[in-house]
Amino acid sequence: MQLKKITKGASRVRRRYADACGAAHALELIGERWALLVMRELLLGPKRFSDLRADLPGISANILTQRLEQLEAAGVLTRRKLPPPALAQVYELTPWGYESEPIIQALGRWATRSPLHDPTLPLSTVSLMLSFRTMLDPARARGVDARIGFRLGAETFLARLRKGRLDVARGALNAADLVFTGTAPALAAAVYGGLSLKALTAQGALSIEGDHALAEKFVTLFPLPPKA
After folding, report:
1. Tally of helices (H runs) and strands (E runs) in the chain
2. Phi, psi of 144 (to 5 degrees)
């Protein structure tokens, strides 16, 4: 596979593989470092530049600017100004960009089987919400019909769990049967790290409002696959 570099501007595709395979072209579009993670952060709705930087703490402002320009040039995302009184510029995926979620889910599910994967590392709130949609075991969730809220840092999400499916969106939590409040790493520690809800609530890392039995059930619904 031949690799060529293109350097005519940060917003253009930077690499060509001279290969007609769709996977090769996908790498031309989104294969640069951080590109997929920028897309991941936009899968649950638009964000400002400052929000993306906060949720991707390892990325520099310069690299984030380059990735946003490249993804916009590729048709994966777009930018727009919010109406008054906000008047802020946000970045959001195009309809085609949103079609990438199953790809990112499959990649994440596949990579969790790596012996080198460390589920205790930090992760963003959006990453955690998407992991729930990815790792939900329909058999374990059978018979559960509930609305579950998440108040994690400055973000709130409401999930509807029913028929072995989990739908998540930003929104108000007043209809929730259960609300978790805390941080994404703390909740991930309960779901993926094996820490008990009792211990996390005793430490003040999490608080639970509503159905505590449902909370105990919820954290068991997302088993990690066996290592390769």
Report:
1. 10, 10
2. -90, 125
Q: Are 168 and 132 in contact (CB under 8 A)?
A: yes
Task: Reduce the DSSP state of residue 48 to 3 states and report it.
Answer: strand
Q: Which fold, 108-218?
A: Nonspecific Lipid-transfer Protein; Chain A (3.30.1050)
Residue count of the chain, please give it: 228
pTM above 0.90, yes or no: no
Where along the chain do its domains lie? Answer: 4-99, 108-218
- Dump pLDDT digits (tens) for 123-145: 899 999 999 999 999 999 999 99
Q: Report the Cα 189 to chain-centroid distance in Å.
A: 16
Task: Fill in the amino acid letter for 90.
Answer: V
pLDDT of residue 84: 80
DSSP helix/strand/coil, 151: strand
